[in-house]
Design brief:
The structure is a single chain. The strands form 3 sheets. This protein has a 6-stranded mixed beta sheet. It has a 6-stranded mixed beta sheet with strand order 5-6-7-8-12-9. Strands 10-11 form a two-stranded antiparallel sheet. Helix 3 packs parallel to helix 4. The two termini are 13 Å apart. The chain is built from 6 helices and 14 strands. It is an alpha+beta fold. Strand 6 and strand 7 form a beta hairpin.
């Protein structure tokens, strides 16, 4: 099973990029974040052989799951805050694997209400991920976590010291998810290797000089970690004209049994 994740920073702006990437790589499951649209173009992806499910929000946020096989949607709401209307979460089951697509809050600037919302959202995610482990179902939580886990995950730590993504509070919460028993799929296969990023700013030739950060992740349960064959970052789409500021991350798993 091949699962990919990509923050497209507007599905309308990046639709042709996504369609071309799907046609070339044919993932079994594709997670998309930051759709920034009220309507998701499900029909266009159906023509490519993909079923889809999406949670949308006008101009902001939004996540979608595409699959070559049946998608059973479980929930579009992260438990713990009934007043939270942000389209940031989608839980589904595909081929007996729980697939969870998240677009975590950015949280900038630190010490703001947005930062407090980010921390509370991550606390809610922690409780949910803890509960999932107890069910015994293979679980993959993927997407844009908006967390730089370690210093190695950015080109220059001093450049990010005052950014919400680099603050100790979200980084501690990210490590707590690993402490539950989840594995960071990419880092588990690329230990102590710097220079691997999934996001580059549009300014000051950040991509050309590889001044990026790694904030798009797959956290996988122990049974999926045992089946993990590879996890790579595909920088190709970031080289295209008018690209997203993120690029896809792709994981490959052996079939169960």
């Amino acid at each position: 099973m091949i699962v990919a994740s990509w923050n497209v920073n507007s599905i309308r702006a990046r639709l042709e990029h996504v369609k071309s990437w799907i046609a070339m790589h044919q993932p079994d499951v594709l997670l998309l974040q930051e759709l920034k649209a009220t309507e998701f173009p499900a029909g266009l992806f159906e023509e490519l052989g993909y079923e889809s499910a999406a949670v949308t929000q006008k101009s902001y946020n939004g996540v979608a799951v595409l699959s070559r096989t049946r998608i059973d949607v479980v929930s579009s709401t992260l438990l713990g805050d009934e007043a939270d209307s942000h389209a940031r979460f989608l839980e589904a089951v595909v081929n007996d694997v729980r697939i969870v697509n998240i677009y975590a809050p950015n949280g900038n600037p630190p010490a703001s209400d947005k930062f407090l919302y980010k921390l509370a959202w991550m606390d809610r995610l922690h409780l949910q991920m803890q509960a999932w482990l107890k069910t015994g179902m293979a679980t993959l939580v993927g997407g844009d976590f908006n967390v730089i886990p370690e210093d190695i995950d950015c080109h220059k730590p001093s450049s990010w010291m005052h950014d919400a993504l680099f603050q100790p509070e979200p980084r501690i919460r990210y490590r707590a998810l690993l402490g539950l028993g989840y594995t960071d799929a990419f880092r588990s296969l690329h230990p102590d290797q710097g220079g691997y990023f999934t996001f580059w700013d549009y300014f000051r030739k950040a991509f050309e000089y590889n001044r990026g950060i790694r904030i798009d992740h797959f956290l996988i349960s122990p049974d999926l970690a045992a089946r993990l064959e590879s996890c790579e970052i595909d920088k190709g789409p970031r080289m295209l004209e008018k690209p997203s500021d993120h690029t896809p991350i792709v994981a490959r798993f052996r079939d169960a049994g």
